[in-house]
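W.,

You were right to be curious about this one. When I first looked at the sequence I had no strong expectations either way, so I just let the prediction run and decided to look at it fresh. Below is the sequence, 244 residues in total, followed by the output.
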Amino acid sequence: MTGFIRLIKVLFSFLLFGSGAGVISFLIFPYIKLTVPKDKQISEYANIVRSSWRFFINLIQKLDIVKIHYNNRAKLNNLSGKIVVASHPSFIDIIILISEIPNSVCLAKKDTLKNPLFRNIVKSVYIINDIDLDLLKAESEQLLKQGFNIVIFPTGTRTKPDEKLKLHKGSAVISLHSNAGIVPVKITTDYPFLQKGEPIYNVGKKPVNYFIDIKDEISPAAFSHLPDIKARKEIMEQVKKAIQ
């Protein structure tokens, strides 16, 4: 595959992705809000996002843009009430994870609301981490107890392979408060693709291999004997070892 043909495929894929996001945000989600009972809306939102993002991931694999390899795909497909904490090397990490994880929402920064195409999606299936801590814990606990999974990138932004990881403790805070297990996921690629600050036209000349390594679950019960601050630190050390 020449670099030019590959670029055309990537641009086409993301044009389709953006168009789909617009349809979901401005047509499908408003329709759901009007026709589906309020207590069932978030599940409908999550299912629609998962299905559409799975279509996108299948498309870019069929176009040989990426190839995705899982060490335990079934585990992702069967998660319920868990906190998924992942490394974040590229733009499509969240799309890959949510396409595989049922009933999933994502912890995200308030800045994600600035994109007009994705604002409705963010408001519907994301938890904004800029809110009051007690409200964040309560909202997260409620979703986890309902069987939703929360996807968190503890670095807060995309990172490069040689970059030292600096992790936020939000996942540990939520885990300890809700008694929900943490499932670390290490995402790596065989060469850089859609990294932070990398232009979309820099797409290489061959398919990018993504390796999705699902690690053993970290149980908050193992740290319940420790003071809260110490427990958070110990949990994040375990997370760091798993995803770095």
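Here's what jumped out at me. The first helix runs from residue 3 to 35. And, maybe more interesting for your project: The beta strands are 66-70, 83-86, 104-108, 126-128, 149-152, 182-189, 208-214.

Coffee later to discuss?

I.
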